[in-house]
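Hi U.,

Before I forget, here's the chain from the pilot set. I'm dumping it here mostly so it's searchable later in email.
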Amino acid sequence: MTIVRRFNNQMPDISNIFDDFFGGDFFNSPASSGRRSVPSVNVRETQDEYEIEVAAPGLNKDDFKVEVNNNVLTISCERDENKEESERGYTRREFCYTGFRRSFAIPRNEVDESKIDAAYKDGILRIKLHKREEVKPKPARMIEIK
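Structure:
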């Protein structure tokens, strides 16, 4: 089962279309997108859980909002840019997040919504979506022949 990325507000904005097609380096630069960029995400599946890793350096755990609604996991961040940081004379800034929003459709009836954990450490937000016991693979068992 794959966790599916959803666009914000059900309609992709033009920067998301270009980002998906061209890789985002030119069209999704902080200067062209109003200092809003989307962090990279890794998604992996184990027998017990799905794990989403969001690369968001320079933020605090209080900057994030993680919510689940109608089988959609939404990760967002809204942060005011520090004026002192913006006046340091950067030539190019790529890891400055003043805000972003990522949404993922989670598999129906596979994830236990009451057992979703999130932790932020070393610039990575890790979200673990634990699978329901009934969908986890069962070990093989021998059946007695009568």
